[in-house]
Automatic annotation (TrEMBL):
This is U-box domain-containing protein. Residues 14-88 form the U-box domain. It comes from Gossypium schwendimanii (Cotton). Pathway: Protein modification; protein ubiquitination. Pfam families: ARM_PUB (PF25598), U-box (PF04564). It catalyses: S-ubiquitinyl-[E2 ubiquitin-conjugating enzyme]-L-cysteine + [acceptor protein]-L-lysine = [E2 ubiquitin-conjugating enzyme]-L-cysteine + N(6)-ubiquitinyl-[acceptor protein]-L-lysine. Signal peptide: none annotated. SMART domains: Ubox (SM00504).
Amino acid sequence: MPGSIEPLDLCNVQVPYYFRCPISLELMRDPVTVSTGQTYDRTSIESWAATGNTTCPVTRAPLSDFTLIPNHTLRRLIQDWCVANRAFGIERIPTPKQPAEPGMVRSLLNQASTVSNPFSVRHSALVRLKGLARESEKNRSVICSHEAREILMRILFSDVSSGSSELSQEALAVLVMFQLTESECTEIGSDSNRVVYLSELLFHSSIDVRVNSASLIETVLAGMRSSDLRAEICNVDEIFAGVTDILKNLSSYPRALRIGVRALFALCLLKQTRHKAVQAGAAETLIDRLTDLDKCDAERALATIELLCRIPSGCSAFASHALTVPLLVKTILRISDRATEYAAGALMALCSESEQSQKDAVSAGVLTQLLLLVQSDCTDRAKRKAQMLLKLLRDSWPEDSIGNSDDFACSEIVPF
């Protein structure tokens, strides 16, 4: 490492140059040594290699391989230096978890997939794989590089009547942490037995199994191009009932809410089976859960509400819920541009079908919200929906609602 590098000031303390990564010039948190003998921070050298570089950044010598050997001695020296300078506000760097070794991953996958192995050995291997996959994206990448998805799918859909159902559930827990290819999604979705099995898991006694099943169903639906195959999956009544029940009864589990909303949205993208969602009680459940969701999930929930409002049974279900219209009105301009657009679209559909919804919207203050919307920086599509809704509600406005409003005297909606 060049001695000419100026000392780095950290909390007004000079950091020794040999504690600094030659690439980032920052204090190393996880020093590793490459084949040339040079030491770098793991994150920096991995980024260097990921951009296509095949030489050592310092020596410019070709790297014979990209094996990274943890420099435990240097890491401990850095940690001791941090402790010695604690009085200056420097925090000790925690000992990093080392990424999974490819050899160990291969061994675990082999143990899990070998049918002749005892149940305890296979189960233990899957549990260890699950733990590794949860630790980091790097571990998931290493696991994926050993055809793990194919192995896990084979275990998941093996003959559960043979007493290996626990193995299937553990394989499912690992599989949902990876993104499946289109061919893998098609392989699952085109097999009715596999789809039925996943639908049955939606009613399992274990919360994790139910949520993992919903997650895989959403992944499969999102990863397939064939509308015919998606229709076959969506025609399984139990799937709508299972996903809706997750949203209805597992609202205290953030992951269950997130996965449930994503799965329901994927199911409702297909118009011909949306009535099944309504029959399963999705409309009432979405309204009841809407205020429990974060921004991204709320957007999906509102998009699903708008989709269901496009069919008569969906409109009726939402219109019959006392909180639907007030919540949609309140959502406008509160969450995001997308959420506003979906809420305005759902209100447009409801008010087009129900005079009571029109009255409820006006009572909830929709006029003020829509006038603010058309003057905001929201999307053009949202503004068009707002203008159409204002025209639709024209006969429901209080007589003095605009004439006495100085705030909206110059609004482009005034002439309507």
